[in-house]
């Protein structure tokens, strides 16, 4: 299975080149739907956020990447699916919700990009979590991907969004802000260590 193969390669790469340290792995549920939300500073973020986990993490990727020879073959086999530039299609949302209903893990960057790769628009993560009942796990990626300088990914405890259920658009904005402020505070806390 290509996902397991590439996850192994990325684990070795991140540990040897970026001295990657993963903390809070115990916060990732062993099963059931999870929306894994991280800060986004680099194209390396999706594999860095997902590779320490035992569970497969699904991501959206820019549709253009699927037209690149070799990469277009690999991406669907490593749990990525296309999203068109300029907005997330109904098909992408439907597929994301189906993955979550099937108890899978979706990796999302709520603040968008690197300016919108892997993002669903700012409210996407909260919307998917509230519609599917998925657990929201915040992830803080700390470091700047300089070789032989330590990178760290910290997985926090679940963000409780239950107060925002059935609360409409304003509630969705507040839920999104709760997720993003949690991630920002985790980054700030661990950067100072």
UniProtKB/TrEMBL annotation:
Report the InterPro entries cross-referenced here.
Plipid/glycerol_acylTrfase
Record's SUPFAM superfamilies? Answer: Glycerol-3-phosphate (1)-acyltransferase
CDD domains, alphabetized: LPLAT_AGPAT-like (cd07989)
Superkingdom classification of source: Bacteria
A GO MF annotation of the entry reads: acyltransferase activity
* Residue ranges constituting the Phospholipid/glycerol acyltransferase domain according to the UniProt record: 34-144
Q: Which UniProt keywords apply?
A: Acyltransferase, Transferase
Q: What is this protein called?
A: Lysophospholipid acyltransferase family protein
Its source organism is Paenibacillus oleatilyticus
């Amino acid at each position: 299975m290509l996902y397991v193969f590439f996850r192994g390669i990325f684990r070795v790469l991140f540990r040897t080149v970026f001295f990657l340290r993963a903390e809070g792995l115990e916060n990732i549920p062993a099963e059931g739907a999870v929306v894994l939300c991280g800060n986004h500073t680099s194209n390396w973020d999706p594999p860095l956020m997902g590779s320490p986990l035992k569970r497969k993490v699904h991501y959206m990727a820019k549709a253009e990447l699927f037209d690149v020879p070799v990469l277009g073959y690999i991406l669907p086999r490593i749990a990525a699916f296309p999203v068109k530039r300029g907005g997330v299609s109904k098909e992408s949302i439907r597929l994301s919700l189906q993955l979550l209903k099937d108890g899978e893990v979706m990796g999302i960057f709520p603040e968008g990009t690197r300016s919108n790769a892997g993002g669903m628009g700012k409210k996407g993560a909260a919307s998917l979590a509230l519609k599917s009942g998925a657990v929201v796990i915040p992830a803080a990626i700390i470091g700047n991907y300089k070789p032989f300088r330590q990178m760290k990914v910290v997985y926090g405890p679940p963000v409780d969004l239950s107060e925002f259920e059935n609360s409409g658009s304003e509630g969705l904005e507040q839920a999104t802000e709760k997720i993003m402020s949690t991630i920002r505070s985790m980054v700030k806390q661990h950067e100072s260590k």
